């Protein structure tokens, strides 16, 4: 690679066209003239494309993971095991030297994907109910990550964490089915995540009715959710009364048809009134 404008033009052209292979070829030709090349920009590009080889070369030549743009690119990148190995080596965001930083990334891995979560588990991550409770308060957890947790720890890890209630509140039928098939109680009562949301404990069905997620309601009913189960004090203390109180006519119809089908089948919900 030359020192002149022609070499830089080629490099920028490759970056602008997202031609990672060409960028790699040009960077690999660097010699003592590395100062004439925008290494940090290339590192950011490589990070955003999960191009570990180019990123590693840039770091060896003087680029830094502390750069705001590069660090942000890494944050939003698909972080596979090879990239995570490199980030750990260079202590990105303190993940190697700070236990709290490591634990924050562990929690975030529940939202990024099973490959990243598995990497952290293989590097000593400890996940308990408190980890899940904190994670549930933020962005949705990936179903594939929860599957990893169930296979590794069993469903008991997830009991009482509001993961089922959160899935129902968001209308996530895939997550609901995964948890119930794994053995979580469909009528599990769990306290709200904060006092600001009120007192009492909620079921997944109550959350789904409140947010009017009809598909989630149907799934929960199929798994035996109880429309009459009292979850709090007051007039709207059951899923059915909640629907009636807010005038959710379609949901009222769903719940009543479900109740009637159980009565015809020999099981009655009326005894719960």
Description:
- Helix content is 58%, strand content 1%.
- The protein is mainly alpha-helical and 273 residues long.
- Among the domains are: 1-78; 193-273, Alpha Horseshoe (Serine Threonine Protein Phosphatase 5, Tetratricopeptide repeat), CATH 1.25.40.
- It has a two-stranded antiparallel ribbon with strand order 1-2.
- The radius of gyration is 26 Å and the shape is elongated.
- Residues 268-273 have low confidence and may be disordered.
- Pfam families: Ank_2 (PF12796).
- Keywords: ANK repeat, Repeat.
List the helices and strands and how they pair.
Elements lengths: L4 H12 L3 H9 L10 H10 L3 H9 L7 H9 L4 H9 L9 H14 L1 H9 L6 H8 L6 H11 L9 H7 L3 H10 L7 E2 L9 E2 L1 H7 L3 H9 L16 H8 L2 H16 L9
Antiparallel strand pairs: 1-2
* CATH H-level homologous superfamily name of the domain at 193-273: Ankyrin repeat-containing domain
Major sheet: order of its strands?
A: 1-2
Amount of beta strand:
under 5%
Terminal CA distance: 81 Å
Structural class: mainly alpha
The low-confidence parts are 268-273
The total strand number stands at 2
Helix content: 55-70%
In round numbers, the mean pLDDT is 87
CATH class of the domain at 193-273: Mainly Alpha
Counting H and I runs of at least 4 residues, what is the number of helices?
A: 16
Shape: elongated
CATH fold group of the domain at 193-273? Serine Threonine Protein Phosphatase 5, Tetratricopeptide repeat
- CATH architecture name of the domain at 193-273: Alpha Horseshoe
SSE string: HHHHHHHHHHHHEEHHHH
């Amino acid at each position: 690679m030359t020192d002149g404008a022609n070499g830089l033009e080629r490099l920028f052209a490759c970056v602008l066209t997202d031609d990672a292979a060409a960028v790699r070829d040009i960077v690999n030709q660097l010699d003592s003239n590395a100062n004439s090349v925008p290494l940090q920009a290339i590192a950011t590009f490589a990070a955003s494309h999960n191009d570990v080889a180019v990123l590693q070369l840039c770091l060896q030549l003087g680029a830094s993971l502390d750069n705001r743009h590069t660090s942000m690119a890494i944050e939003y990148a698909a972080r596979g095991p090879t990239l995570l190995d490199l980030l750990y080596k260079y202590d990105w965001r303190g993940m190697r030297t700070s236990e709290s930083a490591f634990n924050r990334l562990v929690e975030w891995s529940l939202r990024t994907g099973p490959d990243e979560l598995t990497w952290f588990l293989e590097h000593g991550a400890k996940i308990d109910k408190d980890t899940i409770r904190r994670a549930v308060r933020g962005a949705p957890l990936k179903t594939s990550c929860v599957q990893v947790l169930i296979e590794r720890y069993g469903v008991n890890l997830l009991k009482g964490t509001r993961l089922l209630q959160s899935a129902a509140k968001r209308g996530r039928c895939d997550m609901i089915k995964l948890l119930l098939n794994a053995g979580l109680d469909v009528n599990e009562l769990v306290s709200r995540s904060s006092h600001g949301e009120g007192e009492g404990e909620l079921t997944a069905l109550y959350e789904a009715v409140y947010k009017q997620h009809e598909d989630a309601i149907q799934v929960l009913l199929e798994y035996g959710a109880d429309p009459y189960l009292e979850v709090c004090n007051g007039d709207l203390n059951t899923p059915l009364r909640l629907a009636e109180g807010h005038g959710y006519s379609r949901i009222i119809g769903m719940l009543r048809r479900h109740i009637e089908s159980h009565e015809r089948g020999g099981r009655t919900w009326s005894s719960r009134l």
